[in-house]
Amino acid sequence: MPRDTGRLSAPAPQDARPVPFRGGGFRHRPHPWLPPIVFAALLALWATGSASGIISPVALPAPADVYAAFRDLVVTGMLWTHLSVSLYRLGVGWALGAALGVAAGLTIGLFSLVRAGLLPLVSALFPVPKIALLPLFIIWFGIGEGSKIATIVFGTFFPTVISTYSGVDGVDRNLIRMGQSFGLTWSSIVRKIILPGAMPAILSGFRISISIAIVLLVAAEMIGAQYGIGAYILMAGSLFALGQLIAGVIILSVIGLGASWLIGRAERKLLDWRG
């Protein structure tokens, strides 16, 4: 038989409620239904303003005109022609610039001698408008793909370098000292402590650099390019075909959304240790 300890449990009050969990850590909750609603509302306002005459067709074409431009691109097959060329230039240029930027940023963050030699150079060249160097790249690499890809590489390299070495500097030094006290090798500390700790800043730099790469892609394709989204927008603007121009801008927005989605997937996979 259970022994009576002599302790009486106090009855729960009538208005007792469970205490909600307060340790969520400001984790964002997904709202997958909200973006389509916002997009549909903006599209409805746009269509209503165009139909009522509030939005002048000289300033902004109607959604029907933009849809007609998209349909023409699909029917003629020019959508894939322009899109494939732009995606090739964007993918190659951004991948090279990001890879070189991460390597240079890690080197600057880890080695004092390299930081003293390269950091002033990076700080001096980063504010230079990269599109201003396109004529120089044309002289060096020709008017073909080389100059356009070089412009994107040069433009994405510097923000990636800065975000990478800033992420390395932001790693908690107590964790590094703890690894050293446990006898971890230099390479193990870099691989297991510094790289994971700097990864949020590196991925944030990727988001910035891909946006810069898209801007430079359009600017480079507007100079001496026959195919590409930038060349398509330039052609539409010269003909005052606003429907085609807005269609090209929407394609660029979709490319940006796709790149952001891919980086978001990488963040969820690489940063799952944060909980």
Task: Summarize the model shown.
72% of the residues lie in helices and 0% in strands. It is mostly helical. The chain has a single domain (62-274), classed as MetI-like fold.
Mean pLDDT reading: 87
- CATH homologous superfamily annotation: MetI-like
What gross morphology would you assign? flat
Number of helices: 10
Provide the low-confidence segments as ranges. Answer: none
Question: Which architecture does the CATH hierarchy give at level 2?
Answer: Orthogonal Bundle
Structural class: mainly alpha
Order of helices and strands: HHHHHHHHHH
CATH class: Mainly Alpha
Description:
The protein is built from 10 helices and no strands. The protein is flat, with a radius of gyration of 27 Å. The chain has a single domain, classed as MetI-like (MetI-like fold), CATH 1.10.3720. Helix 3 packs across helix 4, helix 5 crosses helix 6 (145-169) and helix 6 (145-169) packs antiparallel against helix 8. The protein has 275 residues and is mostly helical. The two termini are 46 Å apart. The chain has helices spanning 34-52, 63-76, 78-110, 112-125, 134-141, 145-169, 173-181, 186-221, 229-238, 242-270. The model has no long low-confidence stretch (mean pLDDT 87).
